[in-house]
């Protein structure tokens, strides 16, 4: 089964997945615990 006329939906879904992953990575990096040992 081919969806020739609706291939644009894959771009939208791909972009949504990519943005979700990017935002997750940024959130984890921003809230990563900082264990500094400044002695």
Low-confidence stretches: none
Please give the share of residues in helix. Answer: 55-70%
Number of strands: 0
- Can you summarize the main beta sheet? none
**Order of SSEs:** H
Distance between the termini: 65 Å
Beta-strand percent range: under 5%
- The assigned structural class equals mainly alpha
Structure write-up:
By secondary structure, the protein is mainly alpha-helical. Helices cover 59% and strands 0% of the residues. The chain is built from 1 helix and no strands. It has one helix at residues 8-30. The chain is rod-shaped and about 60 Å long. The N and C termini lie far apart (65 Å). The model has no long low-confidence stretch (mean pLDDT 83). The chain crosses the membrane at residues 7-30. Keywords: Membrane, Transmembrane, Transmembrane helix.
Provide keyphrases for this structure.
0% strand, mainly alpha, transmembrane, 39 residues, membrane, rod-shaped, transmembrane helix
Helix and strand layout, with pairings?
Blueprint: H1 8-30
Summarize the entry for a quick read.
The chain is mainly alpha-helical and 39 residues long. It has one helix at 8-30.
């Amino acid at each position: 089964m081919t969806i020739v006329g609706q291939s644009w939906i894959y771009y939208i879904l791909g972009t949504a997945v990519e943005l979700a992953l990017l935002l997750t990575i940024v959130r984890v990096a921003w809230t990563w615990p900082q264990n500094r040992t400044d002695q």
